[in-house]
Amino acid sequence: MRLLHTSDWHLGRSLHRVSMLGAQAAFLDHLVATARDREVDAVLVAGDVYDRAVPPLAAVELFDSALHRLAEAGVPTVMISGNHDSARRLGVAAGLIERAGIHLRTDPAGCAAPVLLHDAHGPVALYGLPYLEPALVKDEFGTEKAAHESVLAAAMRRVREDLAGRPPATRSVVLAHAFVQGGRESDSERDITVGGVAAVPAGVFHGVDYVALGHLHGCQTLTERVRYSGSPLAYSFSEAAHRKSLWLVDLGPGGELAAERVDCPVPRRLARLRGTLDRLLTDPAHTRHEDAFVEAVLTDPVRPADPMARLCERFPHTLSLSFAPERAGQDDTAGYARRLAGRSDQEIAEDFVAHVRGGSAPDAEERAVLRDALDAVRVDGRLREVAG
Fold first, then answer.
1. Distance (Å, whole) CA 306 – CA 206
2. Cα separations (Å) of 30 from 6, 195, 220, 234, 345?
3. In terms of DSSP bridges, do strands 102-105 and 77-80 run parallel, antiparallel, or are they unpaired?
4. Residue 387 to residues 54, 168, 383: CA-CA distances in angstroms?
5. End-to-end CA, the chain
6. Residue-range domain boundaries for the chain
7. How far apart are CA 290 and CA 18, in angstroms?
8. Spelled out in words, what is the top-level CATH class assigned to the domain 270-340?
9. Alpha-carbon distance 320 to 347, whole Å?
């Protein structure tokens, strides 16, 4: 059986206020064409279809068009909700849409009810595990702890129990939206840390033939059978070096697996440039970046006049400009945003406490209080999305 694995479309998202709707439409054209031309048996979408719980109308129209075209092509699609999606909104009319071969899995209680497809070698059970917010689903799964590993492990126990009752030749696929250990982050994923822990071990998914992951934006292989497709487009400059692609997965009669990367269209490359303004404007090595989206960091010791206007004369698609002046004898010259890059909310909060107390870092009890407060704020946000 041939599967096309994708995730993290983030329909409606922009890049530094530049609309990505045109690029997202081009990607969906590519997705539908690939599914048709490569004779795909099913498309797997592992969450974060939209960028926010209440997406703009143009994003909903893109989604609607893609589903219609996949249905018209006769390609079954299995799709789960991610942490950016509103599961309730995405799941509206799921039962009706399923008649057209579009299988939306947004309810955690249904994680052990697979979509069953068949090929010449027998059945394939596809289980959809939507994003599981630990505090919201711990009662559903009867776990003592509101932790990512606990609820995912409980969901996978249900999957394995269901699979055990099916014919022995049944092959299995799981879609999940989670941060799995070994995965590489970028700047554009929303933090899902709970209790100071975000990642779960890949071993939680043992016992199935393929795991189609969503959440991290870089295409990556954690094990032969556990993979992230990554986002189809770059949504931050931290993704400038990413090769955006889909996974084309062939699942053999005995669970044998072969995977091929299918490149996504690149609407415009991303480039991260650093140096003095004069150097950026004159260095011939940067000629290849003149048509790219550019993030520029200027290192001039004194801020030059009209830097953005001058940069845009050579790089008309400059989207981000920051300053990191290089001065002799000064080490801490990075801007505030740059100092925070790559740091978790917990680390930032602890550093703030240490700063206002003259260097006295929070103790273990205080760190736990901060962690609980941050978890409560994040869960409250998810509850508001669900209620909305």
1. 57
2. 12, 40, 20, 16, 37
3. parallel
4. 12, 42, 6
5. 39
6. 2-263, 270-340, 345-387
7. 17
8. alpha beta
9. 25
Same CATH topology for 2-263 and 270-340: the answer is no
Q: What is the pLDDT of residues 250-281, one digit of tens each?
A: 999 999 999 999 999 999 999 999 999 999 99
Picking from 86-90, 225-229, 319-323, 367-371, which range would have the lowest pLDDT averaged per residue? 367-371
User: What is the Cα–Cα distance from 361 to 338, expressed in whole angstroms?
Assistant: 22
Q: What does the buried/exposed string (b/e) look like for 237-246 if buried means 16 or more CB atoms within 10 Å of the residue's CB?
A: bbbbebebbb
250, 253, 255, 261 alpha-carbon torsion, rounded to 10°: -10
Reduced DSSP (H G I as helix, E B as strand, rest coil) percent helix, strand, coil of the chain, to 5: 35, 25, 40
Can you give the pTM of this predicted structure?
0.85
Contact 293, 270 (CB under 8 A): yes
Nearest alpha-carbon partner for 51 in 268, 232, 294 = 232
Task: Decide: 362 and 355 in contact? Cβ < 8 Å.
Answer: no
* Separation between Cα atoms, residue 308 and residue 47, nearest integer Å: 37
β-strand pairing of 210-214 with 226-228: parallel
| Separation of alpha carbons 51 and 48, rounded Å | 6
The rounded distance, in Å, linking the Cα atoms of 175 and 80 is 7
pLDDT at residue 378, as a whole number:
67
Give residue for tokens 């003592």. 144
CB neighbours of 84 closer than 8 A, spacing ≥ 6? 10, 47, 48, 50, 51, 52, 53, 190
DSSP state of 276: -
Distance CA 93, CA 305 (A): 56
* 172, 122 Cβ separation under 8 angstroms: no
Q: How many CB atoms lie within 10 A of CB 235?
A: 22
Alpha-carbon distance of 191 to 344, in angstroms, equals 8
Task: Quote the mean pLDDT of the chain.
Answer: 91
Residue 210's CB: how many other CB atoms inside 10 A? 26
For residue 148 the two structure tokens come to 């990512």
- Per CATH, which fold does 2-263 belong to? Purple Acid Phosphatase; chain A, domain 2 (3.60.21)
